[in-house]
Amino acid sequence: MLETDTITAEDVAAAAGVSRWTVARAFKKDASISRKTRDKVLAVARDLGYVPDLHAAGLAADRSNLVALIFDDFDNPHKLVILERMTRIVQQHGWAAITINSGGPDGATEALQSARQRRVDAAVMIGTEFDDELLSTATEARRLKKLVVFARESLCKGTISIHCDDERAMAEIAEHITACGRRRPLFLAGPETQSAGLRRAELFNASWTSRHGSPSPIVHVGAYASDTAYHRLLEVFGALGGLNAVDVVVCENDIIAIGAMDALRHGLGLHVPQDVGVVGFDDITLAAAPSYALTTYRQPISSMVEALVEILESGETPASVTALEGRLVVRSSL
Question: Residue 212: pLDDT band by 50, 70, 90 thresholds?
Fold first, then answer.
């Protein structure tokens, strides 16, 4: 009996009475091979304990079928939703994923270097602190086959951006707020960065101004964290004019909205939505909890990941920006 770690494709071929190339095709999802032959080869492979060497196959094909998922923010629970959805869907399509934490000083630079060393077919950036200069340098130097910015818009040449259609989303939110009779919005945005980012505050104000003739005030929160949003809203609410100036808080994402609701209720003693309404963005699991019942905008994460898979599998130059439509989810916070 052969030792498991010494079994080769030639051994499987001999035992199954087929060629080595038939063995190789049996392990390829879309290869031209009959169902009967494939089942026979796979059964022999199982009996012998054979598995193909994907690294060697990747070297031969100049393709690793490996994608690096680079995160810099694990405080936002929506990132875990993205991670679960992304790993599950790419694996269903025959890709393997590695996760790289790019938090900390020079984290993004080191993460991209790590991805390059592992010969990934693409690096996917999912986070908040990816500097435009860094992205431009990475693409201009051709250090990665494909560099994808996920769930944020990137205009850096050479990057591929997959994100929710924020312009449409902000227009729907502005329309809903108007229909609810609110006329004094405050936009609570995330940190001000020079990175590939979100334009939700800008897009909301464009839509709001077109309807009502004047923009909404914008207040930036120092981090995408509920406690930071809580203290920031307490800090600025009175200075802005309180209830005379604000009757709805529109938040760049749900974790900011959760902090804003807690501040309104427990820090200021107000009622949501009777005194001030709150709208979020993402539709994290906590948004649907009865204690929040947050009206929010759901990103089309599954569709965005399917678009990523198409880009991974395409041999052609993909579009630089893919913006997909999400859905407004109305609950009792407004």
Answer: very high
Phi, psi of 245 (to 5 degrees): -115, -20
CATH level 2 (architecture), domain 4-52: Orthogonal Bundle (1.10)
Alpha carbons 265 and 269: distance in angstroms, whole number: 5
Q: Which residue has the higher pLDDT, 102 or 11?
A: 11
Question: Under a CB-based contact definition with an 8 Å cutoff, are residues 97 and 124 in contact?
Answer: no
Domain boundaries, given as residue ranges, for the chain: 4-52, 61-164+301-324, 166-298
pLDDT at 299: 95
Above 70 in pLDDT, residue 283?
yes
CATH class, range 166-298? alpha beta
The answer to whether the 61-164+301-324 and 166-298 domains have the same CATH topology is yes
Average pLDDT over residues 161-177: 96
Task: Write the CB contacts of 53 (distance below 8 Å, at least 6 apart in sequence).
Answer: none
CA distances from 312 to 61, 95, 306 (A): 15, 9, 10
